[in-house]
Sequence to fold (341 residues):
Amino acid sequence: MRSLMLLKLMIDLFFYGMILFFLIGIGFAMSFDSINIGGQTFDDLNPTIIVYMIFTIMRPVIFFLAIYHIKQLAGRFIKGEIFTDRTSRHLKMIGYGFILYSVVESIGEYLNSIVNSTGDTIMSGNFMGFNSAWFQFTLGLLFIFMDKVFQNANALKQENDLTI
Amino acid sequence: MESTQLLNVLINVFYYIILITGVLVIGLLIYIGLFDNSLGFAIDSSMVSIMDKEYADSLSIKDYVGLMISILGMFLFIKTIYHLRTATLKMIHGEMFNHVVAKSLKLTGLSMIGYKVVSIIKDLYSESIYDGTFTVGLDFNGFESFIFILILGLFFILLSKVIKNGISMKSENDLTI
Fold:
């Protein structure tokens, strides 16, 4: 129970911290006369920069949604709701969030290499560390699979309750 | 079903790639550090590079400490993926509520937290030793964030408890039948 409370506290801290940092980032970016993305300044808009901007904004939004579902799930666990339809739906949403995040991040990195001519390529073979797109995609699939495990447990629970 | 098969393939490929890479890199670093005098290391704030001895400074104790921290980090990452793979494969093969799955999920969470702690120590060590700087702060940048990895690690530990709950429910069900 203590680890559960610690987890909930950390998720809340992370969730509200993310909102705060995102709003500060947007405000900071808008205070410049020219376009500013992640500290880089662009003088004119062209289609590549517009797409790059969209992907740069999409990344934290998707991550934020995944964190929102983790927060909801931890809240349900604290209430004692473990094997329910709602918890399995949250798991599925976390999984889709991580998969989408890995795809958006990979495309964003590729666009960054075009915009800034860094020469990096998509999925550039970075396997070590949690920042690897491969790890994030696999983790997303695992969460979607966990949704099935929870559905299975939900059926078992209902069967158990019926027997009693 | 297709997503399960894809997960099976991805986790296996990922595991073997990082295992081979990890073993090669760790082996090479140990070999060069102990036996090969023609090559040297260059350790900066982000990584360890292997280069020709004439371009690398001679190794001192602080370089060896940095090297050991890097190797420990790599080992913990491989361990994380190993336990994650063990739990995933068991679940894919239909053994969802099993003590091995619960134990593997718990070890995944612990290794994940361990890896992140080691990588933070590595960054702080490299920054203070090689760049002369020392930065501490909260970071909310996706999967790179320490708090997020801590959350993910604790979440896996929690999942292991949920699986244990499922084990007792399943055994109760089997007894009733």
